[in-house]
Amino acid sequence: MNWNGFSLRWYKRLLESRELWRAFRNSIIIAVSSAFTATAIGTIGAIGINWYRFRLRGYVQTISFLPMILPEIIIGVSLSIFFAGLGIPLGLFTIYVAHTTFNLPFVFLLVMARLDEFDFSIIEAAHDLGATERETMFKITLPICMPGIVSALLTAITLSLEDFVITFFVAGPGSSTLPVFIYSAITRKGGITPLISALSVVMILGTVFLSIALRKFVKTIAAK
C-alpha cells in the first residue's frame, strides 16, 4: 500500500454510499424498536416477579436468563429454523424479534437489580395514605426504578447495534444492519478497505461522544 498523504475522500465516499446508509437506517430502526419493546416487557416481568411470590418463581427466573448463557450462534440458528418453520420471510421483522428476544434477559437483570434495593415500606405508606395501585405504580415505583430502566434501555440499544452473529442468521435480502454490511464489505474486497477504516473512525468518535452524553443523562436521572 502506497502512502499518498491525508485525504477526506473516503469520508466523502461514506456520505455517498446508499448501501451504507440503508444498513445504518436499519440498525437504528431495529435497535430503538427492539430496545423499547424489550425494556417494556422486561420491566413488567421484573416488577411482577419481584412483587409477587409464586411456586415457579425460581424456574421462571432461570429460564429468563437462558439467552444470556447460550452462545449467540445457537440462538441465531434456532431462530432461523423457527422462522422457517412458521413460513415467516427473513427481513427487518425477524431481526426485530430476534433482538428483542436476546435483549430481554439483560433488561430483566438490570431492572431486578434496581428493585432489590427497593424499600417496600414506601409502597405500604402510600397505600396507607390512600394511593391506588395505579398511582403507586406510576408515581412511586417507576420513578424510583427509572435509573435502572434507562440503563437497561441504553444497554439494549448498544447490544442491538453491535450484534452480528444472530442478525446474520435472521436477516433477509435488503435488511442488512451495519455490522453485517461491514462484514460483507470486508469479505467482498478481501480485507479492510479505506472506506471501512473511515467508517471505523466515525463510529469510534460517535461512540465516545454518545457515551459522554448518555453518562451525563443517566447521572441527571439518578439525581432526581
Structure notes:
The chain has 224 residues and is an all-alpha fold. It has a single domain (9-223), classed as MetI-like fold (Orthogonal Bundle), CATH 1.10.3720.10. It is built from 11 helices and no strands. The chain has helices at 9-16, 18-51, 57-64, 66-69, 72-86, 92-115, 121-128, 133-162, 165-170, 178-189, 194-223. Helix 1 packs across helix 11 and helix 2 (18-51) runs antiparallel to helix 8 (133-162). The longest helix is centred in the first third of the chain and has 34 residues, at 18-51. The mean pLDDT is 82.
What's the helical proportion of residues? over 70%
Mean pLDDT: 82
As a percent range, the share of strand residues is: under 5%
What profile does the largest beta sheet have? Answer: none
GO biological process, one term: transmembrane transport
Membrane topology: Multi-pass membrane protein
Protein name: Spermidine putrescine ABC transporter permease component potC
Transmembrane segments: 28-52, 73-98, 137-157, 164-186, 192-214
Secondary structure layout:
Elements lengths: L8 H8 L1 H34 L5 H8 L1 H4 L2 H15 L5 H24 L5 H8 L4 H30 L2 H6 L7 H12 L4 H30 L1
Compact overview of the structure:
The protein is an all-alpha fold and 224 residues long. It has helices at 9-16, 18-51, 57-64, 66-69, 72-86, 92-115, 121-128, 133-162, 165-170, 178-189, 194-223. It has one domain: MetI-like (MetI-like fold, Orthogonal Bundle).
